[in-house]
């Protein structure tokens, strides 16, 4: 029998995805640029071999798939994808579907989608989250492209996706770049979530002077409460893991320089392009950049020293730990609210009609930011899909109000203790600015009008569009 689907790229993600597809009873043809990888993959596939058609040439590969052929391309993002698509194209027929499942920039996806417009071929840009484990046993999948193309792959993708209470974490989210855009924002939120966790870890380690294992206990306890999520769960595991060589906690031996591949930065750029604040993601991207300036930081510590603030003191440790838990929840709400606000602006900008409740729904399982919390977001957006911001939905407004004091106390304690909490502080700044009906931009408007005659609107509706800054006013 012909294969139901094809997959190119048997690297970490591609081989796991292919095994997942085969295991769910879908016959799959596979191809990899380097033939040895294909052979090794097939040799290691065990009893799944019967569902796999290993191919060493593109001709053989294309012929093995049932038309219209859906072909997943799971290779290094960027130019490699364009090259692979060019190599594949001559062998394809009308209605065949090339599916880029890597971490593409959605602008590349839009370009690829448009380039194929008159070719009879179609294109899907598909975000896949969940890392290696997710790919193997159930990722969260964000699909963008033509709805007819989605219909051709819906069954296979539904069979391999993660399930939350039996509901598959995959859906069609809109035309062209919609899937990759949503995946990008997913990663941006992931950056913020991880940074906020790291800042709380910093307060526990450098403020309360707790050891890694003890901090692991704290995260473990939080994982049984409102913060229950994959990222908190792995934080506990990571903090409790020992280095096999020295026996010391492994985190204490890891260099404090974080890598980044671009999706966080893209989230911030797109947010800025649309004029939507995404301060949590911005803070997280900036924090990774500062982290990578290790030499400069060490040199600066020699010149400036650590802040001269004396000992970090809290009156009641148990109460402070409760505050940290609530502060983390609050700042997380801020980052997710911002991420969803960016998506709703993009939905208008690119005419995608992105379904917010569906996005929250397919993030509940499979992906890196999966959590109980996303189920609550799903409920909030289902009740009110067009709300301006998550934080004004009744459930989240309540949570923001309840955790407000804790976030303030934690950010203040960190500031007074000289500990950097840029992402937590950004959340507080965001809430305090967003909830204030009368801000301070009246002064900025006056300054802009003063030096650049930019004009301003008046609160009383009177139409004096310029201020009385004329001669005789300035000192
Ligand atoms: P790997 O490095 O494990 O594999 C890379 C694959 O790309 C190999 O199959 C390689 O083939 C192929 N490749 C590279 N360049 C070319 C080219 N010019 N033409 C054809 N094939 C090429 O990567 P991953 O599996 O980790 O990542 C694949 C994609 O998935 C990336 O876009 C990544 O961002 C994304 N992703 C990764 C996640 C992860 O957790 N790792 C999570 C979610 C998405 P060859 O064997 O011939 O070198």
Descriptive account of the structure:
This protein has 475 residues and is of the alpha/beta class. It folds into two domains: 5-176, Rossmann fold (3-Layer(aba) Sandwich), CATH 3.40.50.720; 184-434, N-(1-d-carboxylethyl)-l-norvaline Dehydrogenase, domain 2, CATH 1.10.1040. Helices cover 55% and strands 9% of the residues. The protein contains 19 helices and ten strands. It has helices at residues 12-23, 35-43, 58-63, 79-88, 106-115, 131-137, 147-160, 178-207, 212-223, 230-240, 263-274, 279-292, 294-304, 317-349, 356-362, 372-383, 394-417, 422-434, 441-452; strands at 5-8, 28-31, 52-55, 70-73, 97-100, 122-129, 140-145, 163-164, 167-168, 170-174. The strands form two sheets. An eight-stranded mixed beta sheet has the order 3-2-1-4-5-6-7-10, sandwiched between helices. β1 (5-8), α1 and β2 form a beta-alpha-beta unit. α8 crosses α12, α11 (263-274) packs across α12 and α15 packs antiparallel against α16. The protein is globular. It starts with a strand and ends in a 23-residue tail after the last helix. Bound molecules: NADPH dihydro-nicotinamide-adenine-dinucleotide phosphate. NADPH dihydro-nicotinamide-adenine-dinucleotide phosphate binds at residues 9-14, 32-34, 37, 74-77, 80, 83-84, 102-103, 128-129, 131-132. One of its GO terms (molecular function) is phosphogluconate dehydrogenase (decarboxylating) activity. It comes from Rhizobium herbae. Belongs to the 6-phosphogluconate dehydrogenase family. It is an enzyme of class 1 (oxidoreductase). Catalyzes the oxidative decarboxylation of 6-phosphogluconate to ribulose 5-phosphate and CO(2), with concomitant reduction of NADP to NADPH.
């Amino acid at each position: 029998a012909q294969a139901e689907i094809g997959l190119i790229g048997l690297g970490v993600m591609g081989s796991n995805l292919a095994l997942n597809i085969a295991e769910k009873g879908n016959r799959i043809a596979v191809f990899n640029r380097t033939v040895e990888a294909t052979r090794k993959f097939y040799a290691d596939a065990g009893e799944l071999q019967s569902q796999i058609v290993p191919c060493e040439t593109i001709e053989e590969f294309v012929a093995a798939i049932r038309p219209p052929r859906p072909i997943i391309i799971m290779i290094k993002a960027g130019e490699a994808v364009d090259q692979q698509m060019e190599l594949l194209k001559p062998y394809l027929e009308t209605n065949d579907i090339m599916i880029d499942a890597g971490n593409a920039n959605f602008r590349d996806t839009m370009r690829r989608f448009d380039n194929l417009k008159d070719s009879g071929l179609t294109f899907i840009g598909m975000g896949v989250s969940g890392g290696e484990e997710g790919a193997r046993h159930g990722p969260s999948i964000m699909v963008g492209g033509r709805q007819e193309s989605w219909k051709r792959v819906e069954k296979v993708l539904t069979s391999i996706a993660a399930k939350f209470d039996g509901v598959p974490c995959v859906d069609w989210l809109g035309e062209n770049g919609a899937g990759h855009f949503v995946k990008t924002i997913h990663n941006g939120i992931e950056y913020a979530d991880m940074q906020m966790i790291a800042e709380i870890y910093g307060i526990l380690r450098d403020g309360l002077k707790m050891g890694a294992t003890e901090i692991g206990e704290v995260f473990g306890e939080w994982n049984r409460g409102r913060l229950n999520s994959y990222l908190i769960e792995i934080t506990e595991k990571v903090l409790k893991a020992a280095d096999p060589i020295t026996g010391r906690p492994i985190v204490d031996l890891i260099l404090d320089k974080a890598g980044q591949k671009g999706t966080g930065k893209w989230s911030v750029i797109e947010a800025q392009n649309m004029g939507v604040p995404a301060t949590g993601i911005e803070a997280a991207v900036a924090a990774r950049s500062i982290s990578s300036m290790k030499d400069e930081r060490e040199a600066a510590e020699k010149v400036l020293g650590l802040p001269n603030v004396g000992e970090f003191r809290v009156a009641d440790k148990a109460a402070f730990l409760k505050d940290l838990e609530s502060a983390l929840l609050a700042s997380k709400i801020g980052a997710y609210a911002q991420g969803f606000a960016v998506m709703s602006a993009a939905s208008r900008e690119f005419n995608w009609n992105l379904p917010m409740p569906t996005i929250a729904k397919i993030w509940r399982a499979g992906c890196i930011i999966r959590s109980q919390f996303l189920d609550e977001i799903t409920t909030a957006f289902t009740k009110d899909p067009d709300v301006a911001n998550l934080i004004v939905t009744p459930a989240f407004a309540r949570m923001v109000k309840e955790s407000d004091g804790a976030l303030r106390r934690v950010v203040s304690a960190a500031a007074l203790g000289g500990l950097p909490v840029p992402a937590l502080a950004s959340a507080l700044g965001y809430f305090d600015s967003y909830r204030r009906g009368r801000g301070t931009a009246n002064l900025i408007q006056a300054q802009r009008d003063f030096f650049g005659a930019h004009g301003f609107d008046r609160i009383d509706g009177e139409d004096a569009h310029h201020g009385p800054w004329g001669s005789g006013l300035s000192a």
